Amino acid sequence: MADSEPGIGKKILSLFINESTEPTQVKPVSDTPIEQPKPAPAATVPNVAGTANVDRKFVEHFVDLLEKANLPGPDYFEFKQALQSMDSLGLGEEKQFQAAWASFKAMGGIKDQAILKTSAEQYLSILSKDRESFLKDVEKAIKERVGSLTDEVKKLEDNNVAYAQEIANLQKKIDDNKNRLGQISGEVAEQSSKLNANRDSFEITYQSFVEQMNSDLNKINQYIK
Question: Smallest Cα–Cα separation from 41: which of 22, 68, 64, 61?
Fold first, then answer.
């Protein structure tokens, strides 16, 4: 395409996507025109082949890229325009390409089809290099943004391991305390039993002494005057 041709970007855009045509709105009769808000463009648009909905921001990026790289004179893009104009003629695919080629040759006086291949391959090369650059930027962004998140994940996981160990240590202490409480309960019962038995033995012996002595005192009072 010639660099001086107006609307190159729009023409390139029309070769790759199908923009929906907005319905004509009837303007109300009024002395003061009412400005209607413009709807936001859709985030995705169908491609010309109808095989996918593509991201509008990347469509605009590629169109801008191809517009800046546009070669002077008729090339692949003019042929693509001519081919697109054959859609409504009801021709088979082969006939469409042949008719588009005839129209293209008449347009610029070009007879060698090599211009189509070389220009298309050059544009493909530009797109490929842009893709490589974009993927590198994505990888860099992943390392910078996702990398910091990965570091945070590892830190949190390490903290959780440490907390789990602390919980395990505390649980062991609780279990040890419970075991000791059980042991103390048994020891209390054992010691209480021994002490009670010793007290009972003391009381029996005490009563034996007291009874013996009281008996002697009674007899002394009775027999010795």
Answer: 22
